[in-house]
Design a protein that fits this description.
It is a single chain. With 363 residues, this protein is α+β, with helices and mostly antiparallel strands. It contains 13 helices and six strands. The strands form two sheets. It has a four-stranded antiparallel beta sheet with strand order 4-5-1-6. Helix 3 runs antiparallel to helix 13. It starts with a helix and ends with a helix.
Amino acid sequence: MEEQITQEEEKSRKVLTQKEEQPSHNGKELKQLDFIKIFQILKKHILLYLITFPAAIIIAYLLVASEPRYYTCTVKMAPEFSSMSSSSISALASSFGVDLSSGGSSGNDAIIPELYPDLMQSVDFKTSMFDVPITTSDGKVKTTYYDYLHKYQKTPWWNNIFSKLFSKKKTVEADSAVNPFKLTKTQSDIANTIGGNITCSIDKKNYAISISVTDQDPLICATIVDTAKARLQDFITEYRTRKARKDLAYTQSLYNTAKATYEKTRRAYAAYSDANTDVTLPSVQSKLEDMENDMQLKYNTFTQYSQQLQQAKAKLIEQTPAFTTIQNATVPVKPAGPKRMIFSLIIGVIVIFIDSIYAFIKQ
């Protein structure tokens, strides 16, 4: 019995000794053994990788190839400043909605640069793009931007299947004039599409305005971004010069009235003077003096309004914002997407990851 107990104690000591010696192995050897084991597990399922990876690449490429290619065009512009005093720069900057004073507020200006993106997403702006004439790059389609988005957009083949299976029966809408206050269903959808195609961003450091347009045709893409830039400039100009134009119109009407009155008085004086050239009666001379004085008053009024008219024109020019184009619109050569090879490779990597998980679970 004692010998058996002694043998069992020796065995237990050997086992403890082996357990104590295991942690002393180098960590690199353990890692090497782990990688070898992992490789062996994955190698058993090599056939699975050879089947699923190429199949996933081909299927993903075919799916993404069904998506129509799209192009992106971007223009950049900025307010134009000249070298002048700080007060003059601040006055000029305010005409663009830019405040150079501390705090970043724009004084009494309601349309600050941060609101330009919201402005371009307004219904009025989007519907103003409906009538833009466009021509496709191959020259086969010449129509308005509204009709192009409504009738000539390419879609994946599965969209047609889903629309037939799940969409309700469409009611044919009669062509009606565009009323931004009350759009039809089709007009609203087209407006939302335009809002998604056109994006505007403002660099808060230098107030540079970037406008980008995405479209399936490169020529239409460049046409629309150039038109959107012009429409935004027109809106800002119209807003900034609204009061100056009203003042100019009012001063112009006063000027026209004063000019007509002066010319009428001058003709009356000339006619009366010609008719009484050789007359020396005091009453005639007195009337001539009165008419001459009245003509002089009308002339002074006419001269005053003429000066005010020139000032109003100068103020309108001063209030008109100037923009410097940093980057002009150009027809893109390469499509911006979809990235077919990148998408296919990502799907392939995901499939390899799923296959590896399956191999470990099955092992």
